[in-house]
Design goal:
The protein is mainly α. It has helices spanning about 15, 20-25, 30-45, 50-75, 80-115, 125, 130-140, 160-190. It is elongated, with a radius of gyration of 22 Å.
Length: about 190
């Protein structure tokens, strides 16, 4: 078919009109805040464990379904939809880790209150409940494993960060090339 790359696949006049996708992306932080509220209520024993689990299931399901519905309603450009689903997927993975870790912390705290953990070394920093500061750091940190506190170095490895950004750009471009050059013609011919 020759070289089929065209600019409209990634960016088009329609891409600039994808305001609903931008608004969806900007409202995604509501879900981690809802998960934090659920954890606070559960920590204070205002809701029981089963209700807390159900709320976490609803929150994590919504963080994936909501962007999908917005993307399908808007018929957006590929790049806009891809970026939104990429961010939503990361948020989903982080919220699942947040829920599991806080559940384990609550179970561990209950066993400590009952005196079941004799002789174990317990770091008080790791059994306290989640705070807004720990949640914000977790949502911005490049990790999918939630911890109440993270070990940190005193400096940022700028070379490593630049290499990772370059890899991300190169492989995103490669993905776009493969989709545009090989997958789209097959899909168009199958119609």
């Amino acid at each position: 078919y020759g070289l089929l790359i065209r600019a409209g696949f990634w960016f088009s006049a329609r891409s600039l009109g994808d305001w609903p996708l931008l608004m969806c992306c900007l409202t995604l932080p509501i879900f981690p805040l809802a998960a934090l509220m659920d954890e606070k209520l559960s920590q204070r024993k205002l809701i029981n464990e089963n209700v807390s689990i159900l709320i976490h299931i609803i929150i994590t399901t919504s963080v994936i379904v909501y962007p999908v519905v917005v993307i399908l309603k808007c018929e957006s450009a590929v790049l806009s939809g891809f970026v939104l689903m990429f961010i939503a997927s990361i948020t989903w993975l982080k919220l699942v880790s947040f829920a599991h870790t806080n559940y384990d912390i609550r179970v561990w705290s209950k066993s400590i209150e009952k005196g079941a953990s004799h002789g174990s070394s317990i770091d008080e920093e790791n059994i306290k409940g989640p705070t807004i500061k720990s949640l914000v750091y977790f949502m911005l940190a490049p990790t999918l494993c939630y911890q109440p506190s993270y070990p940190r170095t005193s400096f940022i490895r700028k070379g490593w960060v630049i290499r990772q950004l370059i890899k991300c750009l190169v492989f995103t471009g490669l993905m776009g090339f493969i989709i545009e050059q090989y997958i789209n013609p097959i899909v168009q011919n199958s119609k």
